[in-house]
Amino acid sequence: MFRAPLPLSTPAIVLVCASPIWLQAKPTTDASPKALLEQGLHELMQIADNEKGSSPVHLAKKVRPTLERFFSFEGLTKRAIGQGWKELSADQQKQAVTLFSEILIRSYAARFDWNNKLEIQFASPVDLGNGRVEVPATSRYAGNTVNVVYRMEQSTNGWAVYDVVIEGVSMSANYRAQFDSVRQKSGVDGLIKSMQDNLKP
After folding, report:
1. Which end of the chain is less packed: N or C, by CB atoms within 10 Å?
2. DSSP secondary-structure letter at 29?
3. Max CA distance (Å), the chain
């Protein structure tokens, strides 16, 4: 089973699951990276509050449409698989994106404690050039404070998160170490199968 490499105290999937005691973040039409993250957080918190106590599988289904608007799961999956991405067929690439995003969402949903509140404060974006920025943030959860950086890139559809760095550790790079190990032993077919097995009850 693939291990979620990031501490639960982080808002790793902009927070698949967030406490109903939220930040002062409200929907906005501002298209800036920071504003989009705040909007995404607000929407996810509303969903999580409505679905409080539901199973990780059910919660994952509810939050996926919102997450897909703010996260580039294809970009995240490409970086997590690394060089092996080119070895996948077009159908396998689509399958990998669906499977990996589900692994991420369920992983954090399963470990969330509804009794603890989540607070996230986003700082101003740092321009990286070439249509990319980093948005630093501070996450407070269950008595822990964690530094987070959201890496975002601009496309024709607007800004989207393509990686999350927790205390200096890249989420995509951490998973890539696990995926590389499976791919080298079992090939790309084995990698897809291992993702499927990861999601079995």
Report:
1. C
2. -
3. 48
Q: Give the predicted TM-score (pTM) of the model.
A: 0.80
CB 38 within 8 A of CB 28: yes
How confident is the model over 10-67, as pLDDT tens digits?
Answer: 334 444 333 333 333 333 334 689 988 888 888 887 887 888 777 878 878 888 888 8
Phi, psi of 199 (to 5 degrees): -95, 0
Give the dihedral sign, CA 63/64/66/70: positive
Cα 176 to Cα 178: distance, rounded to the nearest angstrom = 5
Angle among Cα 175, 7, 195 to the nearest 5 degrees reads 30
SS (H, E, C) 31-90: CCHHHHHHHHHHHHHHHHHHCCCCCHHHHHHHHHHHHHHHECHHHHHHHHHHHHHHHCCH
List beta partners, residue 151.
134, 163
CB of 44 closer than 8 Å to CB of 51 = no
What percentage of the chain's residues is helix, strand, coil (to nearest 5)?
Answer: 50, 20, 30
Query: Rounded distance, CA 93 to CA 91, Å?
Result: 5
